[in-house]
Design goal:
The structure is a single chain. This protein is of the alpha+beta class. The chain has 2 domains: 11-81, Roll (Luciferase, domain 3); 87-220, GMP Synthetase, Chain A, domain 3 (2-Layer Sandwich), CATH 3.30.300. Helices cover 29% and strands 26% of the residues. The longest helix is centred in the C-terminal third of the chain and has 18 residues, at 154-171. The protein is elongated.
Amino acid sequence: MYNNNKPTPPTMKIEYNNVIYTIEHRQGEIVIGGDCVAEGYYKNPEKTREEFIEEDGIRWFRSGDIGELHHDGCIKIIDRKKDLVKLQAGEYVSLGKVEAELKTCPIVENICVYGDSSKTYTVALVVPNPRHLAELAARLGLPDRDFDQLCHNTAVEKAVVKELADHARKCGLEKFEVPAAVKLCTEVWSPDMGLVTAAFKIKRKDIQERYKEDIKRMYAS
């Protein structure tokens, strides 16, 4: 396990000629070593120091990918290390995994989960599905509100939190992984806004910057 004085998940290694697994840890960062590994990044010594290490006479590259070792020896890439957050109580939350599960909830059009390491829970920025949001509003006795009004309604926010919690339970997520508060976003995230890539993958840092005041509000409430 390489931590650079920071908490990280366990590390499994892959050597170019001979595969080396950290068997006792079934999930961890994939680190690649051997003759195929470069000396570092061109004219970028800081990034080279961060991602390349020397151990046992072998140069290793920290891929940043979190892998899961299967019993047949296969490794499945399940996440990116940068998407892991350690909460105050010590639990690790894979933001990408939580988002992937919650995105299958009918109420969710798009979602970005945020975790503060000084807090015990996560929060989420949610672009709701208009049709399902309207159905939820009707069940709450709010049939005549428009989309913008519903997204700013406290009762609707709380109902969405419950919808997510119920869905998360069916998906097998742990309680600490489930967002305890949400901000319902009226904007559809698009590449033109700079909030998703051309392949519509969320740009986490840009979303967090755009909604930083809403994130503060969710943690303050």
